[in-house]
Amino acid sequence: MLIARLIADADGMATRLDDMTGAVGTLGISPMGEDGVELVSVNANRAGLRDAIDAHFDSSDGLIASSPIAIPQVFVSDMDSTMIGQECIDELADYAGLKAKIADITEKAMLGELDFREALKERVALLKGLEVDAITRCLSDRIWPTPGARTLVQTLNSKGCRTVLVTGGFHHFADAVGEEIGFDRVVGNRLNVIDGKLTGELEGAIVDSDAKRQTLEREGANVGIDATTLAIGDGANDIPMIEAATYGFAYCAKPKARAAAHGWIDRGDLTSVLRLLGIPETEWVMD
Asked: Per the residue annotation, which of 35, 61, 80, 90 is the catalytic one?
């Protein structure tokens, strides 16, 4: 049995769902607000159901699960282009006059066209000599949370969920972002600084795709062997974490990350995750 929750344009939804039935077989359909439905299928496979949704709905938010959907006990999220709307290293590079060059490397790494670790080292090396004060200015002037991010995290916190921000970016940014949004813990890379300037190197172990997955698995193990986990990301570096989670979401994601995910947010903001988890708006924490 598969359970799918879907949020899409209400106009013509009934007709599109009827057309989907021809592709995947009988669907149990229950309304979920004006623009949402829960679908139950006993004969479709996950890939077939996902393909049918994509074929019949131009833009949607959704989640496909193989058992009743529950509130997660652990939430691990990517930062750049997920919890915030920017890529921090690209914005910081603008202060060194290198945004276009570094952004091109970032994009290729997110698409999975470059090795993440090597791409990260290359970009950090290009920032050698930049005044560390540029980070403070960048945070103040250019970095802000994605719509719905704080509501998502604060609401999950209120449900007793452990929330962790894990990033292939840098603690110089992530610590401030994590505090603003409300995460319990932050995991990230550290830029080396000497005499107030970036050295072009990193301190300590690199947080890459394996580290993200391991963070999710360790946090889940701390809860228990059957912990329900949620992960959200947007790029190739997030795929192992997304695949390892009970509910792995792709947020406005690159194609490879979207294809790997159990859930997707292409239409709404991050509060769609709360709706897809079945948390009513009356229980959302908005401040």
From this structure: 80
Regions in the chain scoring below 70 on pLDDT: none
Residue 80 a catalytic site member: yes
Token code pair at residue 127? 């920032």
Angle between helices 99-110 and 116-126 (to 10 degrees): 170
Q: Left, alpha or beta for 204 (phi > 0: left; psi -120 to 50: alpha)?
A: left
Q: Tokens at residue 108, please? A: 């290729």
Task: Find, among 68, 8, 56, the residue nearest to 32 by Cα.
Answer: 8
- Structural domains of the chain in order of their starting residue, each with its CATH number: 1-69 (3.30.70.920), 70-88+145-192+202-287 (3.40.50.1000)
pTM above 0.90, yes or no: yes
82-96 tens-digit pLDDT = 999 999 999 999 999
CA dihedral sign of residues 185, 259, 251, 32: negative
The answer to whether residue 175 is catalytic is: no
Q: In this structure, are residues 252 and 281 in contact, taking their beta carbons and an 8 Å threshold?
A: no
pLDDT tens per residue, range 184-223: 999 999 999 999 999 999 999 999 999 999 999 999 999 9
Out of 11, 35, 54, 78, which one is annotated catalytic?
Answer: 78
